[in-house]
Amino acid sequence: MPQTDIGSSDRLLAELRSWVEHETPTTDAKAINGLLDRCQADLAGAGAAIERLPGRDGFGDTLIARTPGEGAPVMVAGHVDTVWDHGTLARSMPWRVEGERAHGPGIYDMKAGSFFAFHSVREILRQGTRTRRPITLLLTPDEEVGSPTSRAPIEAAARGACAVLIPEPAGGSQGACVTGRKGTGGFTLTVEGRSAHAGGNWSEGRSAVVALSRIILQIHAMTDLGRGVTTNVAPVWGGTRPNVIPPEAGCRIDFRAPSLAEAERVVAAIRALAGEEDGIRVTIEGGLNRPPLEESPANLGLYEAARAIAARQGYDLPKQHRGGGSDGNFTAAMGIPTLDGLGCSGAGAHAPEEHIRWAELAPRCATLCELLETLG
């Protein structure tokens, strides 16, 4: 059991509701900063040292809170942005509790987990709990679009840390934590052809859409489920009118790979599609965004510590690998022991049925809190 009293699931749910009902789409810096303002006030009032990094490129701020202490800190990081637009609560996903499930936009991915991190640090400070190491807490604004502005602060904080904890949602029916994630990347591919009348001068044209179609099939063929590699093309665009040979076309490409070697192989294969031939020019921009979170002995050591704490809380904590990336990919690739998926159990990330199993709020938050108290 943690030394810190983190409260009951009912208490946690009541405060978590205020986070969910404060809608924070990634695209609204003001909304995100409004939630961070509340977090900053509570953490500063409890005695945390606060660093607030101003947002840029249209994104919100990054909030960093540090507890007193000496030595390499334990770092915990969560994002407060969601994929849901303003008005989702009113239109289609109202806050509601139905039996063991609490519903609302972003509650599972990942407001419950980020709230765990915030609440644990706040209560550790309020209650004067002695921790083995100082704690560094990051609350970030842009994970859902690849962490373009928060990656650098995350990596900077991780360089001095002894361990990194990521309270992304627990996965599957058993609420597993995550010891491995695929690397993720993306490209924008554009094709330039030559326009012509689709009837009178067909042979003078060079269809960018036809060229793109052939390339899409090549990209699709790079998927190798046996090796854990997937590719996906969407959205796709091209052409202007039915009677004009299309001079332009393009697409976005997503890929996932389980290891850095596989990721580099896929990146090279996709980039090799660029070039110019027979009046068609193919341009490709992009690459690997999140390196793989590869399972390591250090990560497994963190997992075993978490699993033992969970057992004392009365639940089993299995582990799993996932195809989606998180900010833990960045820190694991740096060689910092990283354990992911320490948020609440539930389902429906990015989907209308998004929910958590709210009775598990207290035991799972207690597991994260005890890790923060004892790691090091």
UniProtKB/TrEMBL annotation:
This is Glutamate carboxypeptidase. Transmembrane segments: none annotated. Residues 179-277 form the Peptidase M20 dimerisation domain. Its cofactor is Zn(2+). InterPro entries: ArgE/DapE_CS, Bact_exopeptidase_dim_dom, Pept_M20_glutamate_carboxypep, Peptidase_M20, Peptidase_M20_dimer, Peptidase_M20A. GO terms for molecular function: carboxypeptidase activity; metal ion binding. CDD domains: M20_CPDG2. The keyword Cell inner membrane does not apply. SUPFAM superfamilies: Bacterial exopeptidase dimerisation domain (SSF55031), Zn-dependent exopeptidases (SSF53187).
